[in-house]
Structure formats: structure tokens, C-alpha cells
Amino acid sequence: MKNLIKIVTLGLVISTLSSKSFSGSSCKYDFFGNLTCNSTGNTGNWNSNTRTDFFGNDNHTIYDRDTNQTYNYSCRTDFFGNYVCN
């Protein structure tokens, strides 16, 4: 469930970067459990990495190759079980 929330949150973040759909992306986990996604098709020109730190916070880095900008987000699960990003 937490991984689904990560992907949905990442999709929402990416959709703010581009008006195109999140459906054209390729994501995979590496040996350390980090999630890496790349755009495919006409969904924009971006890539993203998600890493979980020692405290269980998810650190998202999104690089938009069209605008040459990097966006960083940190997400955590709060006391009530909400997945909160800032």
C-alpha cells in the first residue's frame, strides 16, 4: 500500500510539472529499494528518484530535462497514517 501511495504521489507531483499523463513512464526498484522512474512516449522529458532515509522519510528528486530544473520533495507518514509531502 505504501508503494502505491508513493507512485500516486509521484504521479501527482509529475503531473504538476507537465499537463501530460503519468501513464507513460517506466519505474523500477534497485537493489537498495530506491525507486527510479523515467518518462516514456509523450509524457514529458523527466526522470525521478525516490530514496528512503534512516528515519523512514521518502526523499523524491525529479529532474525536468526540458526546463533543466530539479524539484525535491520529502514525504513521511504522520501520526494519523497520512502520507504528507513538503
Overview of this protein structure:
The protein is of the alpha+beta class and 86 residues long. It contains one helix and six strands, in the order αββββββ. It has a six-stranded antiparallel beta sheet, covered by helices on one side. A hairpin with a 5-residue loop joins strand 5 and strand 6. The longest helix is centred in the first third of the chain and has 16 residues. The protein is globular and about 40 Å long. The protein starts with a helix and ends with a strand.
Unreliable spans are: 15-21
The helix-strand sequence is HEEEEEE
Structural class: alpha+beta
pLDDT averaged over residues: 80
Write down how many β-strands occur, each being a DSSP E stretch of 2 or more residues. Answer: 6
How is the biggest beta sheet arranged? Answer: 6 strands, antiparallel
Shape: globular
Number of helices: 1
Instruction: Summarize the amount of helix as a percent range.
Output: 10-25%
List the strand order in the largest sheet: 1-2-3-4-5-6
End-to-end Cα distance: 20 Å
How much of the sequence is in beta strands?
35-45%
Radius of gyration using CA atoms only: 13 Å
